[in-house]
Request: fold
Amino acid sequence: MAGDPKEPRRRAGATSPLAGGERPHATPARLLALRLLRRLRPEAEDGPPLAEILDHADLSAADRRLLHALYLAVCRQRPWLDHCLAPLVARPWAEVEPKVQDILRLGAAQLLCMERIPPHAAVSESVALCHAAHVDRAAGLVNAVLRRLATTPPAPPDPAGAAGIALTCGMPDWLVARFVARAGEVEARAWLTALNTAPTTAVRLNPLRGAPEAIRAALVAAGAGVQPAPLGRDAVVITGASRLADLPGVSDGRVYLQDPASQWVAEGVDPRPGERILDACAAPGGKASHLAALLHNHGEVVAVELDPGRAKRLRANLQRLGATCVQVVEADVAALGAAETFDRILLDAPCTGLGILSRHPEIRWRRDAAMIAAAQGLQLRLLQSVANHLRPGGTLVYATCSTEPEEGEEVIARFLAGHPAFQPAPLATVPAPVAEVGPAQYRTLPHRADLDAFFVARLRRG
Reply:
């Protein structure tokens, strides 16, 4: 495959288990990939985004590319990899130690998804990982299974039915079942294929740090391709850039990495200069800074964030982006004083994140159906809390980056049933890659345009 990373040079003295000889050493990229795969387990704690890890890891450029490819291949193709590996293991796949499963998945990903990595290297490095990860006893199993996989490639999966969608779209069975139940197999496959496809690099040109046309010209002069995005007045898609961090404007805040659907959420608030705006769950600051840009820094944005670490990152981003009208409040939004009132409120509520799987593919393996119900309870409580701070005639925008109706339409229905003073506030026009799924309720459509899946509802207080 043209996009596959080349195999980094093996360290001196390392040999393949296929030929015998000295025990090989695991390459840094593969060792870090194995450690990162622990994040796919439901009990694991959240870690920094992969892009941040790649930027800070002490790796060569080749190893960074390899780490990126390995991690994403396992995240996006895990059902298919497991389907190919399980018949080659004598005992049930579920009884294989999770760390050994991950080593086998990494090896299978190299054999099945990365044509430029020689099979002997994929097998040898997987055995080396067993020793580096202190599961020496599994080295023989890993060697035997991957050698068999290398010599007898599996047949393509049968794409029929929900099981076929899970295999070909790289999704957990429970999530596929939900999509099929509400949309049918054809629509489910379209949505899940889009959510399993690597996203384009979309950014927001920040008018608080320069004229958008001048920023665009600087990007083009640096060799980047700049194309219009499907949503967002200052959103563009960048092509031809190996690392976004190296582009002009990123470090000084002229350019901010943000999906077009996320940008459209802030635009849906429609802030007017001089108004007071609440961003209720503000970190990392993309929407708060966007609101400031839409206000031209003439007004006030109160950005509330409970977590101290996220609040620190929020402040840093706001400073870099020149959002001087934003005041950060490190607190629980539910604890805001009753006297605090706002012309407009944005609640970008905590959610399962099932609408950003293309950008964060590990999320699908760390969620289950029970988490959706738990998220809804928190979302409804937050919505009820912030609604008390909206002035009569004001606009409240509720948003989540989830595909699930329980976190979108159902939250709004339950809220409106208990708050008759609030009414839908529809947009005058609905852009092409957006569907109106209820009165003043919208979903961005990743299978119609390259963007994340957001739910957005606009309400007005009478």
